[in-house]
Write a structure and sequence with these properties.
The complex is a heterodimer of chains A (338) and B (366). By secondary structure, chain A is α+β, with helices and mostly antiparallel strands. Chain A has a domain of 152 residues: Butyryl-CoA Dehydrogenase, subunit A, domain 3 (Up-down Bundle), CATH 1.20.140. Chain A has 11 helices and 9 strands. In chain A, strands 1-3-4-7 form a 4-stranded mixed beta sheet. In chain A, α7 packs antiparallel against α8, α8 packs antiparallel against α9 and α9 packs antiparallel against α10. Chain B folds into 3 domains: 81 residues, Butyryl-Coa Dehydrogenase, subunit A, domain 1; 114 residues, Butyryl-CoA Dehydrogenase, subunit A, domain 2; 121 residues, Butyryl-CoA Dehydrogenase, subunit A, domain 3. In chain B, 49% of the residues lie in helices and 14% in strands. In chain B, strands 1-4-5-8 form a 4-stranded mixed beta sheet. In chain B, strands 2-3-7-6 form a 4-stranded antiparallel beta sheet, with no helix packed on it. In chain B, α3 packs parallel to α7. The chains are: A alpha+beta (338), B alpha+beta (366).
Chain lengths: 338, 366
């Protein structure tokens, strides 16, 4: 039992954090949203450090790592509110695409969006080269140029959602099945939510230290302190569930051959806890910032919007809570792992 | 990162599980009654004979030199077996860690083995009638006397003190304000006047201690006179965190709650909260394994204290809601519920803990 990240895992996260601090600053989110700058800031630099090949097998020129190796790096993409179909490209596509496609993916030359069963929209499909669509239980790919995309403007101006209409021409069936990839995606989004929550907490603490009212920093008031302390606690206790789920989904798959329901339980626990912690972090961030936080003038709005946008992605916290209820109260023999 | 237990850890677990299955007694009378206190002491003797009373201590003092992970495993097995509450917890979990760090060799020799066997059961004496959360405002004092000190004043809400043998706590030994000039004393309760205080369950789980010149020799000062605050803070950090309330306790409660829910088939709203509470016990467990692996036990204790104390109330509240009228008649769930309500108060109220998290973890201004 050693629930600590390795030096390699930590170093990868540090690299991603540095790359994104330099190449995906808050101003680039606004530029991406307003189409005044790059749609996908930071992506080419992330590709250079091998980020998109982390989960791609070595036989397809990837690094062949497990989700646990990448989980902190994924968390960093959340912390930076990195635009684009990050999870779809880096965490779903490696499990579904053919080896030829994967080599391009690992090199950062192929961006992928998905609309799998249960999803209504394809996220960031405008920035994708390839779509993976689930239709009548089977997976297909289609070049995004051949699909008819209808934008569905909404809460997050950076993570854009699209209805996808496929006429039939140009689709290629895939042999893969969705569930393993959806599990990985769900935990990857949970990690992003943890990263988003950490950023929201840090930003709120910084604001509360600097904002003065009644002649004192508002962060010196106990009511404000306790709001922020509760966010810190929620994030601190959600993150280990995400990391444990990442371990469960990584080779050598130590949770297996236990029942798949136990794997699903770990996944749902990660998404529900991370989603709720992030929602709390967003709610408190807005409250601590007050009126200025409610404006479009502060970059804070991009992190708030991403939390709200990612809650329903791959199952809302409420949906996963419902699954957990069935898994915990419905299974005749409730086992713990590890 | 490896979330599998090692072969040695699995063997340790199996051995503890087997021993507890064969030896753990059924429910004992409340440790806050005279008979119950002695029954719990007897149980501690049996634990000690099997070297299970203080598994993380060095072998020479009666322990097994267990790793932190092994200690967590033991706690999981201990509570899963339904074994009794630890009447010796003030000593073995709160005083002993600082005795190992700050005590003299002679003090360790004199106190630790007897503590491990529950030959001496210890009570803590922090709070005073006018010094609760604001412990540094305490006024009970120690005056120098030939060969030692004389203690004066009142300590209160002292758990186990109604029947315990020894006490430890802070007294103002120097004429200095607040955190300065405090000394950490260990004293026999024989000469201290004790007024038992019944708790919400009607049993005297608390006592008030009256000191009217009780003599304490110099060799019962822990650490340097005047440096007591620093040592006390090390104790309270143990109290808030792992050593007092390890995850195993809440995992066992959560498992019992789920079993109860299966019997009683609650409506979905209640079932949802029960599943959530079970999972929160898992979160506390994983959080603890991470804290152990990262060696971050110190800064995490205030966050953990808020989390486990509020989880404990939820677990027991849900059980009472499941049981309806049967929940408010005497029984283990009602006992547990009343006990859980103390969690956000003792060891530093949760309001104090949240302020500590805000100031020391997040860096917000005082």
């Amino acid at each position: 039992m050693d629930f600590a990240f390795t030096d390699d895992q930590l170093a990868l996260a540090t690299t991603v954090r540095k790359v994104l601090a330099e190449h995906c600053p808050p101003s680039s989110l606004r530029a991406s949203a307003q189409q005044t700058g790059a749609r996908l800031p930071g992506w080419s630099q992330l590709a250079e450090v091998g980020f998109f090949g982390l989960l791609v097998p070595e036989s397809s020129e990837g690094l062949g790592l497990g989700l646990v190796d990448a989980i902190l790096a994924l968390e960093e993409t959340g912390r930076a509110a990195l635009p684009g179909p990050v999870v779809e490209t880096a965490a779903i596509a490696p499990f579904l695409l053919t080896p030829e496609c994967l080599a391009r993916l690992a090199a950062g030359d192929l961006r992928v969006s998905v609309r799998l069963g249960g999803q209504v929209y394809a996220p960031d499909a405008d920035a994708a080269d390839l779509l993976i669509i689930e239709h009548r239980g089977a997976l297909h790919t289609i070049s995004s140029e051949l699909a008819r995309l209808t934008p569905q403007p909404g809460v997050d101006p950076v993570r854009r959602l699209f209805s996808v209409a496929v006429e039939g021409a140009g689709t290629v069936p895939l042999a893969a099945v969705a569930p393993p990839a959806v599990r990985v995606a769900t935990v990857a989004v949970a990690a992003q939510l943890i990263g988003l929550a950490r950023h929201l907490l840090e930003t709120s603490v910084a604001y509360a230290r600097g904002r003065t009212q009644f002649g004192a920093p508002i962060g010196s008031f106990q009511a404000v302190k306790h709001l922020l302390a509760d966010v810190a606690i929620a994030v601190d206790f959600a993150a280990p569930l995400v990391y444990a789920a990442a371990v469960a989904l990584s080779p050598p798959f130590k949770l297996l051959p236990a029942k798949e329901t136990e794997l699903d339980r770990a996944v749902s626990a990660a998404k529900a806890a991370a989603g709720e912690a992030a929602a709390q972090a967003a709610r408190v961030a807005l409250q601590v910032h007050g009126a200025v936080g409610y404006t479009d003038e502060l970059d804070l709005r991009y992190w708030l919007a991403r939390v709200w946008s990612l809650d329903p992605a791959y199952g809302s916290a409420a949906l996963h809570r419902s699954r957990l209820r069935t898994a915990i109260l419905g299974s005749p023999e409730l086992r713990r792992w590890p | 990162m490896d979330l599998e237990f090692t072969e040695a850890e699995r063997e340790f677990r199996a051995e503890a599980r087997d021993w507890l299955a064969a030896n753990a007694p059924g429910p004992l009378p409340s440790m806050d009654t005279r008979d119950g206190f002695e029954a719990h002491r007897e149980w501690e003797h049996r634990l000690a004979e099997a070297r299970y009373s203080v598994v993380s201590w060095p072998v020479e003092y009666g322990g097994r030199a267990a790793t932190r992970i092994e200690w967590l495993i033991f706690e999981e097995e201990y509570w899963a077996a339904g074994a009794p509450g630890r009447v010796s917890q003030n000593g073995i979990f709160l005083l002993a860690p600082v005795l190992f760090t700050y005590g003299t060799a002679a003090q360790r020799e004199r106190f630790l083995r007897r503590m491990a066997r529950a030959d001496d059961i210890w009570a803590q004496a922090w709070s005073e009638p006018e010094a609760g959360s604001d412990l540094a405002s305490l006024t009970a004092r120690a005056e120098p006397a030939p060969g030692g000190w004389r203690l004066y004043g009142r300590k209160t809400w002292s758990s186990r003190a109604a029947y315990a043998d020894w006490g430890f706590g802070l007294f103002r030994s120097h004429d200095q304000p607040r955190h300065k000039g405090l000394t950490y004393f260990m004293f026999s309760l024989d000469e201290v006047e004790i007024r038992p205080i019944p708790q919400l369950d009607g049993e005297p789980g608390f006592a008030e201690l009256y000191f009217d010149g009780v003599f304490v020799p110099d060799d019962q000062v822990l650490g340097t006179p005047g440096e007591g605050w620093r040592i006390a803070m090390a104790t309270t950090s143990s109290e808030r965190g792992l050593t007092l309330r390890s995850p195993g306790r809440f995992m066992a409660t959560a498992d019992r709650l789920v079993r109860l829910a299966r019997e009683l088939d609650p409506d979905p709203a209640l079932a949802d909260q029960i599943a959530r509470a079970w999972l929160d016990a898992e979160a506390y467990r994983l959080h603890t394994y991470r804290a152990v692996a990262e060696g971050e036990l110190g800064s995490a204790t205030s966050m953990g204290k808020v989390f486990w104390s509020e989880l404990d109330i939820r677990l027991h509240t849900l059980a009472l809601q499941l049981l309806g009228e049967r929940g408010v008649v005497a029984g283990p769930w009602l006992d547990g519920y009343l006990f859980s309500l103390a969690g956000p108060i003792y060891a530093g109220t949760n309001e104090i803990q949240r302020t500590i998290v805000a100031e020391r973890v997040l860096g917000l201004p005082r």
